[in-house]
Q: What sequence folds into this?
């Protein structure tokens, strides 16, 4: 199977659909974390965010990086660049092969703030879900 493609990981021969889905999601998460590591992003920072959120501890946040979630199926890097790029200079845009989330880094804090406020809950395209 192709790495990171959920449909390829869920085989029809397994008996329990829930187990197959859990295994596929775990594989997808591991592939995405490995891809981020290969592109100089520390995925353990995302785990730290989840832990801090669960404990109620303050969450340290970058003022220039936006984590984009709830992407539509098969989002393009060009579409993300078009949506976020009109708010400032994008230093880095990371969209892993799983295309489940993206990281957009801006050159300046005001640009990132403007993009966050403008793009939160916007749709990337017709019929797509709102971005978080």
A:
């Amino acid at each position: 199977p192709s790495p990171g493609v959920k449909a390829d990981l869920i085989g029809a021969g397994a008996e329990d659909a829930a187990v197959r889905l859990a295994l596929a999601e775990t594989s997808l998460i591991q592939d995405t974390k490995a891809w981020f590591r290969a592109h100089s992003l520390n995925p353990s920072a995302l785990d730290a965010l989840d832990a801090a959120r669960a404990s109620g501890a303050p969450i340290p946040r970058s003022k220039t990086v936006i984590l984009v979630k709830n992407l539509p199926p098969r989002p393009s890097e060009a579409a993300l660049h078009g949506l976020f790029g009109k708010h400032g200079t994008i230093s880095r845009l990371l969209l892993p092969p799983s295309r489940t989330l993206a990281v957009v880094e801006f050159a300046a804090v005001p640009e990132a703030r403007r993009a966050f406020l403008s793009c939160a809950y916007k749709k990337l395209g017709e019929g797509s879900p709102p971005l978080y």
The CA atoms of residues 51 and 57 lie 8 Å apart. The chain is about 45% helix and 10% strand. The chain has a mean pLDDT of 86.
